[in-house]
Design goal:
The complex is a heterodimer. Chain A is mainly alpha-helical. Chain A contains 11 helices and 4 strands. Chain A has a single domain, classed as Orthogonal Bundle (ABC transporter involved in vitamin B12 uptake, BtuC). Helices cover 71% and strands 3% of the residues of chain A. The longest helix of chain A has 32 residues. Chain B contains 15 helices and 2 strands. By secondary structure, chain B is mostly helical. Chain B is globular, with a radius of gyration of 20 Å. The chains are: A mainly alpha, B mainly alpha. At the A-B interface, helix 4, helix 9 and helix 11 of A face helix 6, helix 11 and helix 13 of B.
């Protein structure tokens, strides 16, 4: 059997793949957080809850309406995005002129309420969501078996990340968005509807989280707790990357996911905390984060 | 530090008169409060009262940081729950007396605070909150895996022991007055701390950090000092709680606990000395009330959070201070 650093290649690649999968979710979620924070100056604590909502919406759509995975992948982000838009318009928008900490506290309350409601309705245990028939099975890559669905997750989340990056860096809407991040008053004076832009941004971020949630549903189980488990790690990712750059959020997400996977190979006991340790080290060396601009 | 002290002493006479009424009102409330706390166990379930006192002290310790230094820590469960583990461990395994147990809990929490604070004060605002949350989650995983915490089981059947080796705290009444004494000591420390020159500088950092720096204060050091102080007092509450309930579990170190203490402080009034006590009272009562029903507490907690942030940012005591009666009595509130 081929060995790498004294570890069987199979096990090594398997953990690397898990790391890459986790990294995909970290990247998608920290990307959404960075987009929302860039414009709204709100740290969206409810991001984990929106991720969980995405998975639940997909599962419930299948149970009650027989809507399959492919439609759910499009519909669930829209549903959650609309929900986000309503929350932003009615409630969150009242907090922009206050200290940013209130936005964090509000979305924390929102996350608790959503999570509590789903725990009340569906219990704490996870429920399975089968991957679509087209993506079941595995492919032999020669050195390992790659489950098709996991390969799909890595590819599609990379596409989603790059797509979002292109949307923000290369389109006119993105240009408005970036301009409003720099100076909302001036952009509004040019006749751009900034409040609408804010709502759109929050909906986009929530939709991205829900998209990640649908992707995650067949990998992990659909559970009300899935959001709060991941969001704290994503916060650490965001601290490491710094929220100044979209690309930074994506790259950091993948990097830390892989770091976590590799730790599972070499020192499993520390795999839970390795991202937090990396965060602490980065804070010592470069307090603004790897890609951060603001201190 | 003379600048800051100077600015607080040059109040105009009308204001001095008003704050004289305020201190009279404070003294009256204090007296009434003390009497109520002393007779309370005759009317209420003592365990419930002890829980309330522990959480009240925890919230006041947290408020030292949020209310008086302007730092939102999302990781205070580490100090509360960490101290609970330390106190439970040393009283059960080493057989030390309860007061020593609590002191060791306080020392442990202060050490944890020193480490977490060292990293967290490198960033401000929202990043500070996220860093404390992440480090606290790291501590949670540590507690999950370390052997002395006994993982999911926690440390069970912790003896309350004999206070100073003399007074048996297994007796509920003795235990209640012991907890009350701990609470009062904690409150006096907090009161002394925020009214000391050190506390004044913390307030100036809260109001205008740049200016405090330009006046030559080493802001980072003051922030770290406040963080450690707050952690130590939170540990005092946590250690005492471990003795009251005679166990220490993962619940006390989880992020939900950090959220709860924020809610208590927000509900009672950020930056008021006694607000968090009322906030803690409300939250603990609510939890007790809902504990018997199937309805999950988190839904209510979350809703109260949202309502507080949207409509009620001053909290109960803050609203009272800002109300007509409060102003008549001479209280001031800045927000």
């Amino acid at each position: 059997m081929t060995m790498i650093f004294g570890i069987p290649l199979q096990a090594f690649m398997g953990q690397l793949l898990i790391g890459l999968i986790n990294g995909s979710f970290y990247a998608l979620l920290s990307l959404g957080l960075a987009v929302i924070f860039g414009l709204l100056r709100v740290i969206n604590f409810a991001h984990g809850a929106q991720y969980m909502l995405g998975a639940f919406v997909a599962m419930l759509m299948l149970q009650y309406f027989g809507i399959n995975y492919w439609f759910a992948l499009i519909l669930a982000p829209i549903v959650v995005g609309l929900f986000g838009a309503v929350i932003e318009r009615l409630l969150l928008s009242r907090l922009y002129k206050l200290d940013h900490l209130y936005g964090l506290l509000f979305t924390f309350g929102l996350a608790l309420t959503i999570e509590g409601t789903f725990r009340y309705l569906y219990g704490s245990s996870g429920q399975p969501y089968a991957p679509p028939p087209a993506l079941t099975g595995a492919t032999n890559l020669g050195f390992m078996f790659l489950p098709n669905y996991r390969g799909w997750v890595v590819v599609v989340s990379l596409i989603a990340c790059i797509g979002t990056w292109l949307l923000i860096e290369k389109t006119k809407l993105g240009a408005y968005l970036r301009a409003a991040t720099e100076n909302p008053t001036l952009v509004q004076a040019f006749g751009v509807n900034v409040p609408m832009l804010l709502t759109l941004t929050y909906a986009l971020g929530a939709g991205l989280a829900a998209f990640a949630g649908v992707l995650a549903a067949p990998v992990y189980q659909v559970s009300p707790l899935m959001g709060s488990n991941i969001i704290i790690v994503v916060f650490a990712v965001v601290v490491v990357g710094g929220m100044g750059s979209i690309m930074g959020a994506i790259v950091t997400g993948y990097m830390l996911g892989i770091a976590e996977g590799l730790t599972k190979v070499f020192y499993p006991e520390a795999s839970n905390i390795v991202i937090f340790v990396i965060m602490a080290i980065v804070l010592l060396i470069r307090p603004a984060g790897l890609f951060g601009r603001d201190a | 530090m003379s600048h800051v002290v100077h600015s607080t002493t040059t109040t105009n006479t009308a204001r001095t008169e008003r704050s004289a009424t305020a201190s009279k009102a404070y003294a009256a409330f204090l007296g009434i409060g003390l009497v109520l706390l002393i007779v309370a166990p005759m009317f209420f379930y003592p365990i419930f009262l002890m829980k309330l006192l522990c959480f009240a002290l925890f919230a006041c310790a947290f408020n030292l940081l949020l209310g008086y230094t302007g730092l939102l820590s999302f990781g205070h469960a580490t100090f509360f729950g960490g101290a609970a583990y330390f106190t439970a461990h040393v009283t059960k395994e080493w057989g030390v007396t309860p007061e020593i147990g609590i002191l060791i809990g306080v020392a442990g929490a202060a050490a944890l605070g020193l480490v977490m604070g060292f990293f967290a004060i490198r960033r401000q605002g929202i990043y500070f909150a996220m860093i404390t949350l992440a480090l606290s989650q790291m501590f949670f995983f540590f507690c999950l895996q370390a052997s002395f915490t006994h993982g999911e089981d926690g440390i069970q059947s912790v003896p309350r022991g004999h206070l100073f080796g003399l007074i048996d705290l297994a007796d509920t009444t003795s235990m209640y007055y012991f907890v009350l004494a701990v609470f009062l000591i904690g409150m006096i420390v907090i009161w002394r701390f925020i009214n000391s020159p050190f506390g004044m500088i913390l307030k100036s950092i809260r109001e205008n950090e740049q200016r405090a720096i330009s006046l030559g204060y080493s802001v980072a050091r003051y922030k770290l000092g406040a963080f450690v102080m707050s952690a130590a007092l939170a540990g005092m509450a946590g250690g005492t709680k471990a003795l009251v309930f005679q166990f220490a579990t993962l619940t006390d170190v989880g992020w939900q606990m950090s959220g709860e203490v924020i809610l208590m402080t927000l509900l009672g009034g950020i930056g008021t000395l006694i607000g968090p006590i009322f906030g803690a009272g409300l939250v603990v009562t609510l939890q007790n009330y809902l504990a018997t029903s199937q309805f999950p507490v988190t839904i209510i907690t979350g809703l109260v959070f949202m309502v507080c942030v949207l409509l009620f940012r001053r909290g109960i005591i803050g609203e009272f201070y800002a109300s007509r009666l409060g102003r008549k009595l001479g209280f001031e509130h800045r927000r």
